Amino acid sequence: MRKRIIILFVLLLLVGIGLVWKTKSQIQKEGNSKKLGGYEGDPSLIVSDQNYLSEQSTEIDIEQVIDDYMSWAEYPPNSRPLHESHTDLLNPKVIPVVTQEMPILEKGSIKASGFSCSLQPEYHSVTEGKTLRIFLSCFRTGSANRESIKIIESDLKGKAGNRSIFPPSLQANDSGMDGDERKGDLVYTFHFRPQRTDWADFYLTTKFTIDADETHSIHSLSHHFFSSPIAPANFTGRYEDYLSEGSLLIEVELDVKEVGRYTIEANLMTETGEPIAYARRDQKLNTGKQRVALLFFGRAITKRRENGPFHMTFLRGELNTDVIQEDMLSLPPEQVDIALRSVRDDRPKKKLIPYWDDEITTKAYLLSEFKADIYESDEKQNRIAELKALKDR
Question: What's the superkingdom here (predicted)?
Answer without folding.
Answer: Bacteria
